[in-house]
Amino acid sequence: MPRRSLRFGTLAAALALMSFGSPPASAQEWPSRPVTLVVTFAAGSSDDVLARIVSARLSEILGQQVIVENVAGAGGMTGVSRVAKAPADGYQAVLGGTGTFAANQTLYKKPLYNAVQDFAPTALIAEQPILLVARKDLPADNLQEFIAYAKASQRQLQYGSGGVGSATHLG
């Protein structure tokens, strides 16, 4: 069983209740003190804005303050690692996404946490589209053609990324 699988059950219920606008029916021991929601990117980022909107409503529902704390660095791994190492008591949660829980597991030789073993998803609170964009004169008109072109031209291609490196060779 994943280490964090039951950790945020009440938090997940509170997130679900946000859409209904009603507080939990019965008083619970948790939370008896403020909860920290770690955002793995800088203040003002889209993740930070989302976390502040969610934390305000969660604070109302839980009857305890939900503090947003920005712990940026290493493509989000610094903040996620901190929550992975925190006591499994439900007082620290992390707002993560595909970068922090999927890409980092393959981009880094030694990630600071194991996304599968250390965490379990509790709630989907937003969806963000991801686009693959290429130059207009690239000789590929769809994804299949792009993949074939990239495989054949690895040494000449570069890509831009908000993660590890800003312009990196594919080959």
Q: What is the CATH class name of the largest domain?
A: Alpha Beta
Biggest sheet layout: 3 strands, parallel
Structural class comes to alpha/beta
Q: How helical, in percent, are the residues?
A: 25-40%
The termini sit apart by 38 Å
Total helix count?
6
**What is the H level of CATH, i.e. the homologous superfamily of the largest domain?**
Bordetella uptake gene, domain 1
Explain what you see.
The chain has 171 residues and is α/β, with parallel strands linked by helices. The chain folds into two domains: 9-118, Bordetella uptake gene, domain 1 (D-Maltodextrin-Binding Protein, domain 2, 3-Layer(aba) Sandwich), CATH 3.40.190; 132-171, no CATH class. It has six helices and five strands. Strands 2-1-3 form a three-stranded parallel beta sheet, sandwiched between helices. Helix 1 (9-18) packs across helix 2. The protein is elongated. The protein starts with 8 loop residues before the first helix and ends with a strand.
Provide a short characterization of the protein structure:
This protein is an alpha/beta fold and 171 residues long.
Summarize the helices and strands and which ones pair or pack.
Elements: H1 9-18, E1 35-39, H2 46-62, E2 66-70, H3 77-85, E3 92-95, H4 98-107, H5 115-118, H6 143-152, E4 158-160, E5 167-169
Parallel strand pairs: 1-2, 1-3
Antiparallel strand pairs: 4-5
Helix pairs in contact: 1-2
